[in-house]
TrEMBL record:
Alphabetized GO MF terms: gluconate 5-dehydrogenase activity
Top-level taxonomy: Bacteria, Pseudomonadati, Acidobacteriota, Terriglobia, Terriglobales
Gene: gno
Listed name of the protein: Gluconate 5-dehydrogenase
EC number: 1.1.1.69
Recorded superkingdom: Bacteria
Cross-referenced PANTHER family: 5-KETO-D-GLUCONATE 5-REDUCTASE, OXIDOREDUCTASE
Family according to the record: Belongs to the short-chain dehydrogenases/reductases (SDR) family.
């Protein structure tokens, strides 16, 4: 059974992976045997994450690019090609949050979130899939959604719209590429203890609401996503495609 989850010999690119859920998923994929590539827009963040992961014994390299910059993404993949790096697993995790009521929301902030969260997954996914298709050995693409892929919340219109879109993007990718042995799925994380959720964590009322509204009665730890991402990246999920798996402690069951 363990061979189903063995990622030895595979290379995984995890976007937005220098901290939080992305870092935890990178660590989980490495623990399953994959060589990992961590990504951020910032060289210093990538260097720090690579050093931390190497200290843990991971086979890791860094890639600095903005997922929403098509030219930068193309250049990064050209460098992978030049170095003989074959990405067989892509985790589209990069994303940002912006909280404001719709009627107060500026178009520039709407576009900034959509570009980072949804357009970036399209750009990076296209570059990765183009090479997976050319190699003819299949691949895995995992788009990171959210509870807002399913359940709306006030004041997060661009974020929720992007996460609903990223789930549908995975389904369309699946419809186009499943016949080429490329499985494309989504993960919908619930309330996790990450930097992005600090405004909620640090608000006593909201913090209490998160815990009381969740059957698990607590926040999720980033490491608790590792099993799901390894499953979707491995041959154990070879007939699973176009799906979203919510990892939320049961939160959606009560909504």
């Amino acid at each position: 059974m363990s061979s189903l989850f063995d990622l030895t010999g595979r290379t995984a690119l995890i976007t937005g992976s220098t901290r939080g859920l992305g870092f935890a998923m990178a660590q989980g994929l490495s623990d399953a045997g994959a060589t990992i590539i961590v990504n951020s827009r910032h060289q210093s963040a990538v260097d720090e994450a690579v050093a931390k992961l190497k200290a843990k014994g991971c086979s890791v390299r860094g890639a600095v690019f903005d997922v929403s910059d098509e030219a930068a993404v193309a250049a990064a993949f050209a460098k992978f090609d030049q170095d003989g790096v074959e990405i067989g697993i892509l985790v589209n995790n990069a994303g940002i949050q912006f909280r404001k009521p719709i009627i107060e929301l500026d178009l520039k902030d709407w576009k900034r979130v959509i570009d980072a969260n949804l357009t970036g997954a399209f750009i990076v996914g296209k570059e990765a899939a183009r090479r997976m298709l050319a190699r003819g050995r299949g691949g895995k693409i995992i788009n990171i959604g959210s509870l807002t892929s399913h359940s709306a919340r006030p004041n997060v219109a661009p974020y929720a719209s992007s996460k609903g879109g990223i789930m549908m993007l995975a389904r369309v990718m699946s419809a186009e590429w499943a016949k080429f042995n490329i499985q494309t799925n989504s993960i919908g994380p619930g309330w996790f203890l990450t930097e992005m959720n600090e405004p909620v964590i640090n608000n006593p009322e909201l913090n209490a609401w998160v815990k009381s509204s969740n059957p698990a009665g607590r926040w999720g730890e980033p490491e608790e996503l590792a099993g799901t991402v390894v499953y979707l990246a491995s041959s154990a999920s070879s007939y699973v495609t176009g799906q979203i798996i919510y990892v939320d402690g049961g939160w959606l069951t009560t909504q």
